[in-house]
């Protein structure tokens, strides 16, 4: 086997089924912002329409994109206030309804029991939200303090596809890219990992049947070296990456 000893796992829709819940809360807030800023939307955003467009990006990243597209401005203080509000809205939804991705808990338990790997969470979402997510589903015990957020952990907040959060996580863990593997479900997350020099396992489990095949193509194109449909394929995928087969 190779020298992989560290697994860097995305959180939203990789470990926990949070995207749909989060985007519901997010859509409500963005529609309110559009009204406040007199932004003429063809139709209000829904959780579903936001997901299609912005999966893998955090709220701050979305607001930057939307300001450019609809040509409106927001002060830093306004943006910070909305970021805080979005976090509260989303965390309330997650604490009420969140569940793990199918099979993820079993794999984490086995990996932890094997003692072979350092496990870390590397997310675009705010740290408070990530922590609330893994606490709610009982996964926090596998990661300790090794939970990294592009929105919170960096000197300057960013979002995937920027590789900064992966580079930061590896620096904090004292690991090189060739000792690590990332698991990602989105194009922006996959690009972030690839740009940080990592091999990425793409995960398409949470996508609806009709979108799944398209996502396989998107994640491969973004640089994922292998695709996993279900967490029960993780061991086989990891073995292929570690042996250099992919």
Automatic annotation (TrEMBL):
PANTHER family cross-referenced by the UniProt entry: 6-PHOSPHOGLUCONATE PHOSPHATASE, HEXITOL PHOSPHATASE B
Protein name: HAD-like domain-containing protein
GO MF annotation terms: metal ion binding; phosphatase activity
Top-level division of the source organism's lineage: Eukaryota
Keyword check for Magnesium: yes
Needed co-factor(s): Mg(2+)
Gene3D superfamilies for the chain: HAD superfamily/HAD-like, Putative phosphatase, domain 2
Keywords assigned: Carbohydrate metabolism, Magnesium, Metal-binding
Cross-referenced InterPro entries: Beta-PGM-like, HAD-like_sf, HAD-SF_hydro_IA, HAD_sf, PGP-like_dom2
């Amino acid at each position: 086997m190779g020298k992989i000893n560290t697994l860097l796992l995305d959180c939203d829709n990789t470990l926990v089924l949070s995207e749909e819940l989060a985007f519901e809360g997010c859509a409500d807030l963005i529609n309110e912002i559009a009204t406040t800023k007199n932004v003429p939307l063809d139709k209000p955003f829904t959780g579903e329409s936001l997901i299609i467009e912005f999966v893998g990006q955090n709220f701050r990243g979305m607001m930057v994109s939307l300001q450019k597209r609809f040509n409106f401005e927001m002060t830093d203080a306004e943006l910070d206030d909305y970021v805080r509000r979005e976090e509260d809205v989303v965390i309330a939804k997650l604490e009420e309804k969140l569940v793990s991705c199918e099979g993820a808990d079993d794999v984490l338990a086995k990996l932890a029991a094997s003692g072979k790997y350092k496990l870390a969470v590397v997310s675009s979402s705010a740290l408070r939200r990530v922590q609330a997510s893994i606490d709610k589903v009982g996964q926090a015990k596998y990661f300790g303090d090794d939970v990294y957020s592009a929105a919170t952990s960096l000197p300057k907040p960013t979002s995937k596809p920027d590789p900064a959060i992966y580079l930061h996580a590896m620096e904090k863990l004292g690991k090189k890219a060739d000792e690590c593997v990332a698991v990602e479900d989105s194009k922006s997350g996959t690009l972030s990992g690839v740009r940080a020099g990592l091999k990425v396992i793409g995960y398409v489990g949470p996508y609806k049947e009709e979108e799944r095949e398209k996502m396989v193509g998107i994640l491969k194109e973004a640089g994922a070296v292998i695709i996993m449909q279900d967490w029960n394929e993780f061991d086989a995928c990891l073995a292929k990456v570690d042996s250099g087969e992919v």
